[in-house]
């Protein structure tokens, strides 16, 4: 088993030992389902996702415990086996209820990569590389248009110097007005300046 499964199993075993087993046996593997007081809290999407992740980890721990019980099964371990099966069913039911509050959209490409046994991070890498390539193409086009504009202004200035000068004055006035308007809109009533949130 890998470290994530063993850590989930250790967490589940700790929950079983400290979570109130029956009698004085302590480590019989029975996990008492905890009441879910998170329903009274605000439905925060990140919190809902964390609850689903915790439920998945708890389920993995229960599956590991179940595997250990089944692999060393004897008549005496029938009761712990039934208790662990019941705990697994309760946790799966809890996971289903928690997942109804989460609305996560996973791209089909990610699921296909997982089905193919590949790392889903490849999808993220491919999307980022695609965005970088498109950004470079767009930047090249923008630079080409800037060069064309500069070249056209130079040519127009040679042919029509007065008109180009008045165009530049109008352009400078318009840019200053736009800047002043943007600054006026970003000032709050208390004098503070709005700051654009970074995405």
Automatic annotation (TrEMBL):
Instruction: List the Gene Ontology MF annotations in alphabetical order.
Output: transcription coregulator activity
Using the UniProt record, give the first listed, main subcellular location. Answer: nucleus
User: Compositional bias of type Gly residues: which residue ranges?
Assistant: 17-29
Region: Disordered; residue ranges are 17-43
Keywords from the UniProt entry: Activator, Nucleus, Transcription, Transcription regulation
Q: InterPro entries recorded for this chain?
A: Mediator_Med10
Q: GO cellular-component terms in the record?
A: mediator complex
The GO annotation for biological process reads: positive regulation of transcription by RNA polymerase II
- Protein's cellular compartments: Nucleus
Q: Does the keyword Lipid biosynthesis apply?
A: no
Pfam families per UniProt: Med10
The answer, when asked if Cell cycle is one of the entry's keywords, is no
Function in brief: Component of the Mediator complex, a coactivator involved in the regulated transcription of nearly all RNA polymerase II-dependent genes. Mediator functions as a bridge to convey information from gene-specific regulatory proteins to the basal RNA polymerase II transcription machinery. Mediator is recruited to promoters by direct interactions with regulatory proteins and serves as a scaffold for the assembly of a functional preinitiation complex with RNA polymerase II and the general transcription factors.
What family name appears in the similarity comment? Belongs to the Mediator complex subunit 10 family.
Subunit structure, briefly?
A: Component of the Mediator complex.
Q: What is this protein called?
A: Mediator of RNA polymerase II transcription subunit 10
Its source organism is Davidia involucrata
The gene it comes from is MED10
């Amino acid at each position: 088993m890998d470290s994530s499964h063993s850590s989930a199993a250790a967490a589940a075993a700790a929950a079983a030992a400290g979570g109130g087993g029956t009698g004085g046996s302590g480590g019989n593997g029975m996990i008492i389902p905890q009441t879910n007081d998170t329903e009274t809290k605000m439905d925060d999407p990140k919190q809902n996702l964390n609850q689903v992740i915790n439920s998945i980890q708890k389920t993995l721990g229960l599956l590991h415990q179940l595997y250990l019980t089944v692999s060393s099964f004897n008549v005496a371990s029938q009761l712990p086996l039934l208790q662990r099966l019941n705990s697994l069913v309760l946790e799966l039911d809890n996971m289903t209820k928690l997942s109804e509050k989460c609305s996560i959209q996973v791209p089909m490409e990610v699921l296909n990569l997982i089905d193919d046994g590949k790392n889903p991070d490849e999808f993220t890498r491919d999307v980022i590389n695609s965005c970088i390539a498109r950004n470079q193409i767009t930047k090249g086009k923008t630079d080409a248009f800037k060069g064309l504009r500069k070249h056209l202004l130079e040519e127009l200035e040679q042919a029509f110097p007065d008109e180009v000068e008045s165009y530049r004055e109008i352009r400078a006035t318009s840019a200053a007005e736009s800047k002043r308007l943007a600054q006026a809109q970003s000032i709050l009533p208390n004098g503070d300046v709005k700051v654009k949130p970074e995405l």
